[in-house]
Amino acid sequence: MAGMKFEYDENGGKFFYFFLSVYALILVPATYWLWPKSEEKQSTHLEDILSYPPCRDKYHLLRASEPRRRRRTIFVKIVLLAAWIILLILAYRVSLIETEHKEYDPFMILDVDLEASISEIKRAYRELSKKHHPDRGGDPEKFANIAKAYKTLTDEEAKNNWKTYGNPDGPGVTHFGIALPKWLVDHKNSLFVLLIYTGVFMIVLPVIICIWWQKSARYAGDHILIDTIKIYHFLLTKTSLISIKRSLLILSASAEFDRRLNPMIVDRPSDNIELPELFRELTNVQENIKEIPFQQLYSIKARTLIYAHLHRLDSLSDNLEKDKQYIVRRSINLINEIINVAVQLVNVQHIKHSEIGPKLETIENTMKLSPMMVQALLNTKSPLLQLPHITENHLRFFETKKRTIKHIRQFAAMGDEQRRSILRSITDEQYYDIMNVLAIYPHVTMTVSFGVANDDDEHIITTGAVVTLTMRLHRQNMSSLFSKELAINSSALTNNTLNSEGNEEEIGDRENRDKTNETLKASTTTTTSSKGWNNKSEKKKKANKDKGKKKGHPKSSTKAINKQTPTNTNNNQKKTIKNDNKDSSDDDSSKHSDDSPTNSRQRHEQTRDDLNETDNESNNNNNNNDDDDDDNTNENIPNNSTPEQSESVISSNKTKTPDDDKDDDVFLERFQQQQRKREKLETKAKISHRVFCPFYPEIKQECWWLYVADRKQHALISVPIYLCNLKDDDEIEVKFSAPKLRGHYVYTVILRSDSYFDADVTENFSFDVQTAKKVADNHPQWDFSEDDGATNNKADDDEFATESDSDKD
Fold first, then answer.
1. Does domain 106-167 have CATH number 1.10.287.110?
2. Burial category of 129 from C-beta neighbours within 10 Å (exposed 0-12, middle 13-18, buried 19 and up)
3. CB contact at 8 A, 592 and 485
4. Most distant CA atoms of the chain, gap in Å
5. Which pLDDT does position 384 carry in this prediction?
6. CA-based angle 30:33:38, to the nearest 5?
7. 197/188 Cα distance (integer angstroms)
8. Backbone conformation region of residue 245, classed left if phi is above 0, alpha if psi is from -120 to 50, else beta
9. Which of 51, 104, 311, 762 has the greatest count of CB atoms below 10 A from its CB?
10. 471: helix, strand or coil
11. Where does the UniProt annotation locate this protein (predicted)?
12. H helices within 258-296, ranges in order?
């Protein structure tokens, strides 16, 4: 009777098979992830080659860790190569293992052919018995195999069992091989094995998981402590308007700078001597503040080192310099987290309809901290100090009676001789360094378009509608502006730095927009009055409005007009708009001193409004053509026809029009564009342009915040998007809900740099919110009367009538 039998690996062959498979499963992915990647040769940056002392210090700081990194790389390669050598040795050892399982073959044991007769089998058995009999000094085990083989070939029952089961004794036991040596499961060693099992799986593994969980549960995204997020939430809810000094206090109160929560922070006895000296040198540290947690020692130390970094002090000791570099290195992620917490509080404010919450200025003041930390510059200082070799003493040459240069774009727009005359106190090499850095300074242009997606009237915004705002960004270097005149003057540049003068801009924009609308209306009335066919089209529109009341009038004359007017009106109106734009551009080019971003936006809005008016008139004309087609279908209906017959005629005439195909194509094209944008966002790497920041202890990539705001209400409209992949061109869509009250609104799109001062871009856009159309609840399509239901049921009964019912009828 068949059974089961467990066989342990006495020779160790099966254990090698098991160990080799598990070892290879671990080694192959470990090699893929741990093998040092070959670094691509990056192009040399200006920070690596300039003779500016902070650039030299940063270059040596970044290269200081290279020997350690090389040693680590060599060590990892040696360990992985040794592991692969062990794998090859194991594979060779396994290949030498002979298979122990062999099939039972009695013919091979007796050394006879498969077709041997009984007499030949007996003769072979006698010869082998004489040779291997135990009484004659033979091997007893081999003699037993010879006897068993002889019995298998001479006994019919044994021979049939051998052919059926492979064993002359019949079905045998099922063997299970265990890839463990027998001594490991021996009862003598059971206590030792039990202790190892308990120690590994019940003590070591749970302790490792517990330690990992305790460490990971303390952190949120970007490896920021949850205690830090709680501190930010508590401090941001206390006051709605936070200044830049207050934002610095909140940043210094981060739990990452507390030694009790972060083991990377080191408190030294020398801090008690060195920090008071910094207090005397820095007057705005506010070390005597009594508010929690600003009065704690770790917050005072972090705040002192932050102000030392912003004042570009180079008199710090080595220990304090290391602490300052760590704080500055961690500050960018912490500033982003403050912004995220503030935006979450704004969302809660909108949901709960509460008046308590962070204002727009709070978020923007926090954003200003990032370029302050990257450039080691206070926000009150001139942005020209971002350029190398320029100090406070050189700024007096930028502001004289003849000129006032306060912004980098103004300095870039000057001629080379004028720039050199301003910086005549520096050497030629230093001047070339300044120009090389100025050449890579970012210059971003932005165009804005908006509409209501998946709607028939995209440009009509109703209350509560979801507005899709599309921003097209084009980034180029400031070298494109060298030896060219800027299209904006100094007053417009100051407005572009996001100061408090934005509200005055909005008022001026609205007044200028009203004036331009009046002039456009006057011009359109003069052009339409000069054309005779425009009067006919207006009369035709009035006739089409009264067409629903009066039916049966002839359509021959209006058809001819409808076929001609749409194309003519559009072409003529576009010509007039082009001529107006040419005139305005000529006037603007002749008057550079009056140019400003607001005026350029006004001209853009004028042309856009004109195009919208032409599109609306063309849509009205197309609607009139559709009405004519409806009248044609009504004329094809017989006078003595029933309503059901007339509906069938109308449905047959209006099966599918080319406009429906166009709508389907437009919808498909929009869907494909959205899919392409999603794929681009998923595949984009977070690499843009390297920032020139010699005082920042790491390599920094350009990043930008993009958001929509209402300057008049001091409100944030959309969640800020953190862009880290703006290399050349990019297109971003932002969706926001339209206001719930009808009226005229002016919003501002803001692109703010987290690495540079004086690189921000703003663009105002205005729109009118109309009341939403009421949904028709009494449409004839949904009017089901009882008579119609009865007739339909009767028709269905007649259709499925039986033969008996028809006979009765």
1. yes
2. middle
3. yes
4. 138
5. 94
6. 130
7. 16
8. alpha
9. 762
10. strand
11. Endoplasmic reticulum membrane
12. 271-281
CA 161 to mean position of chain CA atoms: 72
Mapping DSSP to helix (H, G, I), strand (E, B) and coil, where does residue 467 land? strand
The whole model's pTM is what?
0.66
Confidence at 596, pLDDT banded by 50, 70, 90: very low
Where do we find the tokens 């160990």? 19
SS3 of 92, please?
Answer: helix
- What are the extents of the domains in the chain? 106-167, 192-217, 221-381
Which residues have C-beta within 8 Å of that of residue 328, sequence separation ≥ 6? 306, 309, 373, 696, 697
Q: Enter the tokens of residue 143.
A: 């003699």
Over residues 716-757, the pLDDT tens digits come to 999 999 999 999 899 999 999 999 899 999 999 999 999 999
Are 502 and 711 in contact by the 8 Å Cβ rule? The answer is yes
3-state secondary structure of 101: coil
Percent of the chain's residues with pLDDT above 70: 65
The Cα–Cα gap between 126 and 141 comes to: 17
Q: Which residue has the higher pLDDT, 364 or 113?
A: 364
Cis previous bond, 780, omega within 30 = no
CA distance 662 to 668: 10
Alpha-carbon distance of 286 to 297, in angstroms, equals: 12
Share of the chain above pLDDT 90, in %: 33
CATH number of 221-381: 1.10.3380.10
Q: Which of 512, 523, 509, 549 is nearest to 765 (CA)?
A: 509
Write the CA distances from 753 to 364, 375, 505, 576, 759, integer angstroms.
Answer: 11, 12, 22, 41, 6
SS3 442: strand
Tell me which residue of 78, 98, 89, 76 sits closest to 20, measured CA to CA: 89
- Average pLDDT value for residue range 100-120: 77
CB-side neighbour CA atoms (13 Å) of 183: 3
Cβ–Cβ < 8 Å for 351, 364: no
The answer to whether 106-167 and 221-381 have equal CATH topology is no
